Amino acid sequence: MNIHEYQGKEILKSFGVRVQEGIVAETPEQAVEAASTLKEQTGTGWWVVKAQIHAGGRGKGGGVKLAKSLEEVQEKAAKIIGMQLVTPQTGPEGKKVNKVLIAQDVYYPGASEHKEFYMSVLLDRATGRNIIMYSPEGGMDIEEVAAKTPDKIFKEEVDPKVGLQAFQARKVAFNFGLEGAAFKEMVKFVSALYKAYEGTDSSLFEINPVLKTSDDKIMAVDAKVNLDDNALYRHPDYAAMRDLAEEDPTEVEAGKSNLNYVKLDGNVGCMVNGAGLAMATMDIIKLAGGEPANFLDVGGTASAKTVEAAFHIILQDPNVKAILINIFGGIVRCDRVAQGVIDAYQNIGDIKVPIIVRLQGTNAEEAKKLIDESGLQVYSAIALQEAADLVTEVLKN
């Protein structure tokens, strides 16, 4: 689960990580109030107005602005709130900005002595271990740094048996070329950041930039945090941070029906039980000349009601030209799925896209009989290749 920058900073702060202070606002008036409060708390005279969306590269799209007066705070907040912000990570459609973070200016006098670094903590799936990835080239696209100057990307692998060791935190500070007070501050920062990553059951903590100020403080100026959905039951306070406005409405609706759904850009809707079978079905569609319009796993205990809900979700995509239902009846009974197909047809009404149904396993014969006797315009398949051939056929018509 992605969360906003201001939420990520709240989490970091709770683990002892120094962060750029800020207050979130949803209106220009609230932005001015936030700026006034920050001035009282931190003494800052300039502020950074930062769009809060679940995407990086906000500055490139005009979503991060420096304000040198309260009037500018209001003016720039008014321009950013409500805008459709397009960044390299949002796609051409962009994302609507519903709130901004008013942050203190941390690039105070002595800016020539400021240094920016990149740091992230994540799981290296190749080794099954957490790693700290870092670079002295902060504030830039890390992909660009990796491509042009790979020697400036460092990795510190953490042994899960012993956790992050003090010498590893010191190694990070050493590779950043720090010394004195800044060195000690960075060691504390690295240790606290790793504790935050582990303590929140996160899959990613990315800080870009990590800033060394002119007076040798080390702080997180930005925070990109991804929390592991599977561990949210242990963190109800973090689960409450979910911002549904930042997610695809169809995926949100699917979640309410306990469906595993991911929208894609293709033309063939998929309804499958089991993630592995879903991936194989998507391969079949591509081999047949189509493109998957979604990943949709109805789960092992799908009922007629679940299948009907899945139909509603798939048909919301105007790009869908056909639907392939591929169910292997193990725990789930094929006749339940078939009844769901029939119910969906009757309740939704005029379904104009062709439907291909492949049901194998528990009660498959009963399921085929239900569909055959329903009078619905449904293509029935037994083998995977037969289903692929039917996809090819219906897409040509």
From TrEMBL:
Amino acids binding substrate: 273, 330-332
Pfam families in UniProt: ATP-grasp_2 (PF08442), Ligase_CoA (PF00549)
Enzyme class: ligase
Binding site for ATP: 50, 57-59, 106, 116
Any one annotated GO CC term: succinate-CoA ligase complex
Keyword Ion transport carried by entry: no
Reactions it catalyzes: GTP + succinate + CoA = succinyl-CoA + GDP + phosphate; succinate + ATP + CoA = succinyl-CoA + ADP + phosphate
Cofactor: Mg(2+)
UniProt-annotated binding residues for Mg(2+): 208, 222
Domain ATP-citrate synthase/succinyl-CoA ligase C-terminal: 271-389
Co-factor: note: Binds 1 Mg(2+) ion per subunit.
Domain ATP-grasp fold succinyl-CoA synthetase-type: 2-210
The entry's keywords: ATP-binding, Ligase, Magnesium, Metal-binding, Nucleotide-binding, Tricarboxylic acid cycle
Enzyme Commission code(s) on record: 6.2.1.5
HAMAP family according to UniProt: Succ_CoA_beta
Similarity comment text for this entry: Belongs to the succinate/malate CoA ligase beta subunit family.
Subunit organization: Heterotetramer of two alpha and two beta subunits.
UniProt name for this protein: Succinate--CoA ligase [ADP-forming] subunit beta
Organism annotation: Anseongella ginsenosidimutans
